[in-house]
Amino acid sequence: MTAEPEPEPIPQRRRSSAWRRALVWVMAGGGLSWVAFSCGLDRYGQARPTPEGQWDAIVVLGCRVYPDGQPSQALARRVDRAVELFLAGRAETLVLTGGAGDTGFVEAEVAAARAESLGVPRTAMILETRSTSTEENAQFAAEAIQGRRVVVVTDAYHVLRSERVFSRHFHEVAVVGTVSPNTGARVRGAVREALALAGYAVQGRL
After folding, report:
1. Which of 15, 36, 100, 127 pairs with 5 at a CA distance of 20 to 30 A?
2. Residue 157 has what DSSP assignment?
3. What is the band of 196 on the pLDDT scale with cuts at 50, 70, 90?
């Protein structure tokens, strides 16, 4: 009886190529899922209802300032929306948060200048000028005011993390999300936010 020949081994090059293709497919699938989750964060923030009634304060989360000292488009949108809520009587106090960024300007001070130009008196503002993160925004804002019911204004994709973080420092929190008309910038911001949200979850900050 003649013994059957041993099967020929798969060449190393072919095995490596197959693994590379599989890895590419896995990474592509993971990347698409990550983008979908990021866009979901943005949609979640846009769907949150506008708060009604009277609150203790409206808190504007800090954001980038341009090298010429002007607020970035994101910061300007946040301030503008907060001023709308303030003028609508949602709170008598406006809290501007954010320390010095990479351009050297203090975000809270730049935000306050814009709020004042839109009709908010300085006597109604509290500036929190130390924070450099969402966690510090919440912590230092809680230290700066007596009230424990706040409306927070930030970008839509940042709403979920802000809700979770601020709820650890305040009794009741409503977060209002602003929306950039630049779809590409919004997607990029949402993707970065998904990473930040994962980091906060790992650190137990949610």
Report:
1. 15
2. G
3. confident
Alpha carbons 75 and 149: distance in angstroms, whole number: 22
What span, in angstroms and rounded, lies between the C-alpha atoms of 3 and 188? 62
Q: Which residue has the higher pLDDT, 6 or 198?
A: 198
Q: Indicate the burial class of 75 (C-beta count within 10 angstroms; 0-12, 13-18, 19 or more).
A: buried
What's the whole-number mean pLDDT along residues 41-52?
92
How many residues are recorded in the chain?
206
- Pick from 121, 102, 205, 114: nearest CA to 163: 205
Q: What angle do CA 177, 149, 79 make, to 5 degrees?
A: 35
33 CB neighbour count, 10 Å cutoff: 10
Tell me: the pLDDT tens digits for 93-141?
999 999 998 899 999 999 999 999 999 999 999 999 999 999 999 999 9
Which residue bears the tokens 């001023």? Answer: 83
| Tokens linked to 177 | 């999300």
